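SUBJECT: protein chain
CONTENTS: sequence, structure tokens:
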Amino acid sequence: MKKKVVKVFSFLVVVAVVISFNWSLIAASSGESNVNVPLNCEFVLGSMNVTRSTAYSYVEVQAYAVTPRYGGTDNYRYCRTILKGAGSNGVISRGSYYTLDEENTICTQVKIREGQLFWSQVDIYFAGNNESKEANVRYYYNGK
């Protein structure tokens, strides 16, 4: 009888631990992609439904190549990025935008505003850095 009680108690402890487990440890998504950005620094969707663990207050993004959309001399270097909650129109990243530099070898931490940290999925948007130029941006992201 005593062994049965110990087994039941152990089982209940395990169940309680699983129920109280911090689900924010769910794995975040990461990947690489590219996006064409139009004239006038208009933001366009790069990656949607990027999963984040919610354990961090940022998403990592790195632009490793910014090139002319239709070829030609590549003197492009910068692009802009913002975060939106998955499927929403509201910007959740801090500030108006983050400028990414293709020569930066580490990821930029695109910080999420206080009060918006609950988003477990985000959309990453990109824009050019020059109103008169279209570009192709190749990038890496990590939802953290």
In short: Helices lie at 2-20. The longest helix spans residues 2-20. The beta strands are 30-37, 44-51, 58-68, 78-85, 98-101, 108-111, 121-128, 135-142.
